[in-house]
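ok so I'm stuck.
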Amino acid sequence: MQTTDDHQPGVPALDLPPEPALALDLDLVRAQYHPDSTYLNTAGSGVLPARAADAVRIAVDTMAAGRPLDALFADVEAARASFARIAGAPVAQVAAGASVAVYGGLVAASLPPGAEVLTAENDFSSTVNPFHVRGDLRVRIVPLDALAGSVGPDTALVAVSAVQSADGRVADLAALREATRAHGARLYVDASQAAGWLPLQAADADYVCAVGYKWLSCPRGTAFFVGPEDPDALRPVFGGYVSGEIPMDSCYGPVTRPARSGRRFDEAPSLLAYTAARQSLALIEELGPDAVRAHDLALADRFRAGLAALGHQPVPSPGSPIVSVPRLGHRQAELRTDGIEVAARAGNLRAAFHLYNTPEDVDRLLTALSH
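replied:
not stuck anymore, here's the structure
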């Protein structure tokens, strides 16, 4: 990382944090990631590594040649196992699908009419909307920092993103788990903005879901759900043939032998997406989520320090690689023209720093914002 004596023109010298104690394998990162811009929008969509892109090309050739697809179905199982290790979950509890909203709908369908669901204000729509469209649930919306204190004896479920998409704030999951246990409520966590950089222990929630296409570097069309230890505790309302104990024996008529694992909540897999996901998740494991986290947070802190020097105050989001700056969202199009990819969310400029970003990327954005 650059020092205070080596900074970009136009950016004040910064009081920077030290190098992260856990060093990321930057040679491996450079070999696998090749964005053609200063890409700072992982909170929107991550960059696909080269090994994943190569695997998809081979899979496409397999499909085009009419060869058996056994290896592609094996990719789904390898990806499931890899996500389980990253999320700190038993692989037997992990379902493979394509959408957070689908799994949110699965959880919503398990609630009785009139049940109270507690959600955070302005949380991501896919996290909370399945509970609204039920129509017969009492959905109560409170500020994120008031969520744990709002859990009461009438609360059946708390549904929350581990990290807020709009501004990067990190939910206090420990406090939420304590509150839900105290009142006999369940906790549903959307880890889409967390899995891949934030340490997770799926046992700290009743249900965990995450898309793969953000911090896990997978393509769109991949999502994972960690369900209950007892699969009978949740009804597989969308169960298709893949939910059978032996899927190819469950192709016709009712599925009489549902899988005795998280596979009973599988969606029919998008094979090309999961072929890439196998490679992407293996790479995250190889790099080490702890090292990724240290790298990401050091870059985000560098950006926060630079913003302060420029007179800007971001939304407070300590311990997050997502930094949201009020009143600067209008500059997103201009920055894209300059080859810097960020997002505009709710009028704010949102920058998200991940393993393929560098201190030079941070300084380039700060230089652009200084003009």
